[in-house]
Design goal:
The complex is a heterotrimer of chains A (about 280), B (about 300) and C (about 280).
Chain A lengths: L2 H4 L7 H18 L1 H26 L5 E2 L2 E2 L2 H28 L2 H5 L3 H5 L5 H31 L7 H32 L3 H18 L9 H8 L9 H8 L6 H25 L7
Antiparallel strand pairs in A: 1-2
Chain B lengths: L4 E10 L2 E11 L3 E5 L6 H8 L7 E6 L2 E2 L10 E4 L11 H10 L5 H14 L15 H13 L5 E5 L7 H16 L3 E6 L2 H7 L2 E6 L2 E7 H7 L5 E7 L2 H9 L4 E7 L2 E6 L2 H14 L5 E5 L5 H10 L1
Parallel strand pairs in B: 3-8, 3-9, 6-7, 7-8
Antiparallel strand pairs in B: 1-2, 1-4, 4-5, 9-10, 11-13, 11-14, 12-13
Chain C lengths: L20 H14 L2 H10 L1 H15 L13 H10 L1 H12 L4 H5 L2 H6 L5 H19 L1 H15 L3 H5 L3 H24 L5 H26 L9 H12 L10 H22 L8
Classes of the chains: A mainly alpha (about 280), B alpha/beta (about 300), C mainly alpha (about 280).
Amino acid sequence: MSDAVRSTAATPGVLPSAVRIFDLSLGQMLWSRRSVFLGVLLGGPVLMAIALRIVDTLHASGFKVNGAAIGGSAIFGMMVWLLFIRFIVPVLGVFYGTSLIADEVDDKTITYLFTRPIPRRSVLLGKYLAYLACTVLLVLPSVMLVFFLLVPIGGGRIGEAFPSLLTDLGMLAVGLASYGAVFALVGTMLKRPLVVGLVFAFGWEPAVLLFPGYLKRLTVAYYMQALVTHEMPQDSAVSVLLQVFHEVPSVTTSLLCLAGIIVLTLWLAGRAVERREYVLEQ
Amino acid sequence: MAGLVVADHLSKWYGQVIGLNDVSVTVPSGITGLLGPNGAGKSTFMKLITGQLKPSKGSITVLGEPIWQNPGLYHRIGFCPEQDTFYDRMTGLEWVTSLVRLNGVTDTEAAAMAARAIEDVELTDAADKKIGAYSKGMRQRIKMAQALAHNPELLILDEPLSGMDPIARRKTIRMIKDWGRAGKSVIVSSHILHEIESMTANILLINQGRILAEGNVHQIRDLIDEHPHTVHIKADHTRALAREFLGHDDVLSLKFEEGAVVVQTGRPDAFYTRLTDLAASGEHGAIHEVMSPDDNLQAVFQYLVKA
Amino acid sequence: MPIHDQGYRRYGGNKARTGTGWMVIARAGIRTFLSKRAFLGLLLVSWLPFFVRAVQFYAAANLTSIPQASMLAPSAETFRQFLEQQQTFVFFVTVYVGAGLIANDRRANALQIYLSKPLTRAEYILGKLVILMTFLTLVTWLPAIVLLIVQIAFAGNFTFFSNNIFLFPAITLFAFIEVVLASATMLALSSLSKSSRYVAILYAAVIFFTQAVYGVLYAVTRSTALSWLSFSANLAQMGDLIFRQPLKYDTPWPVSLLMIVAIIAVSAVILERRVRGVEVVA
């Protein structure tokens, strides 16, 4: 046995350890029943896109809103807003983010990870990276399929719209990273993180975005808005109000703030995991 | 010599419930059995030793270093927890390998170490099967494999024999004794007394969050001198022997059983000396068997716990 | 006999008749949740809209000197809106109470123990249903009925009540539909998993995803005829019908009712298949 294995002199680095946890966790996350279900959920937008494409093919007149024809890009933009940004990305963030450590605690497998010569925060970081990889692998292909199905509607050209697809993919990846980090912090600090997460994503954020002032800067959605190239659909009174109070930071500011949110929340979450005692149910 | 595990006025409470109460103990190297009834504080002590819990008061050092928030120490410690949970979709080899990789070794080294550990616990045939398909005994053994794969100095085993069939128990006890002989230190917790006894004579007895006794079980027994020593004597003329015994004040009580007399004595040394002389002289008939039913862990345990 | 036998003696007292086991489960479950402070807090907060409405009714009845007081006068729509506002609390109470009702028993392998007693599966399910339905009734039917009583008390006469005599059965019927729908759906989802967290996300997905899907289709087609796709829209449609309000959606109300009945039926089928003492793994 090599002496390096016996030495306690150096605590192993966070990043190398996180990579090993990532390796361990990615396969579990990808092939778990939950991810299969979420994959099916993400098939919903694809099925909708197929249905819309079939309807468009059968009815030559195409889709009209208030008498004006709308193209595939506009429909794709609506789906990105209404399905991905307002629902899928926050829900994935809440679901996976709050369970990064909680799942291991519930399954009582956390002991094996916390009695290894790696910093505890690297367990959190590794699982976060696995969450990011898993959700990106699930969400982005769904978005791409929807794009390729919808954009040709109304004569739209995929080549012209392709750069905006890349922007959208980047934006969704940033959204997944941000929500995941925020809810990872919520998950490490609270006993019932899921309820708090749902309140934050579907209560606090939509409500606070309506009010003028600085409160909205305490949301991820505020910064995400700046990264969306599509027009916000006016599907409800809330959306109309949002347009009235529409105050969007610059792309650079949003990216910097989201990066800051990710780094800060992950750092705080790592700190919480290091200090917390996990008492498993007997 | 510094102990393996040194607890100094160590206490741990969960809200208003005290798990461990002002424990000061030094666990020496070798195999040590941690013994106590359910709810005694064994698990709490194990969790403190393995750095899963932080002391509420006092301190605990393992291998000379504080264990809480000291992940580097886990290079030298292997822990086999009580809970029967795994990543069921992985095979035994995959699981042990992925955990050993967390020790910082390369993939190839990790695979080799995992395979060696699995061979040590005699699970090579099942190494490529999913853990979800393992029997209880196999799961216990694969847990031990992940604990010893990185060749730690100290093995901490929490109820390692739980749920095992008799053959698996015997094998595991033999393994633990082999590890002890190979120079590893082992702390093994259990509430099954005769199994601890078969592994080691060195025990730590815990109850209601306090250490009741520590050290060699026979020495502990001798120290409990207030507690009468029971001696079971099979002889031809039990009544004659009884009359002889009653003439001495160290005999506190006696009773008769089929072909035997059971004596309680407050001074076992004096009593045994006299008994030896009686047996040699044959004055009161032949003495066939002398046994002390309470020179064992069960008696020590029962006495101390009830006291 | 002077020396009495101290050995085991069979219970010789009265036994409850068979078929009442569900009451034991319901009682124990209700007591468990009532002992949690956080949950009591949630119940308390769920009554805040009641107090706001009560103040409104007081002002309408007693501050007649203020011209704006007439705007606060109650109507059938007021009660409809009140129950609509309570849906937020219905969601959170359903998630809090219902997510783990069967999931926790499955995780702890308690189903085998339950069903090895003289307790049928139907009684087990009924007991669990009653737990959730009790708390949902506490945040829907009870505050609405008390509000009606409060209106009578503040007005000092039965004029409003007699002019809106249908309100009592309307509140009861709508609350019943809402409570049964939420309870059946949540219980069915709870029987699908061992993780209450996963169940909560599934439930949130059913509510929000179906709403988002309808939102996209509405944004594209500008037609509310597809509202039957949305879980909450179907309930809203029935609410408007029962309270004699103009229907918000173009979907015929029998379609909405059919969807509600279908969801309850599917939930019943799921429960019948999943609540078993033994899980057979092929």
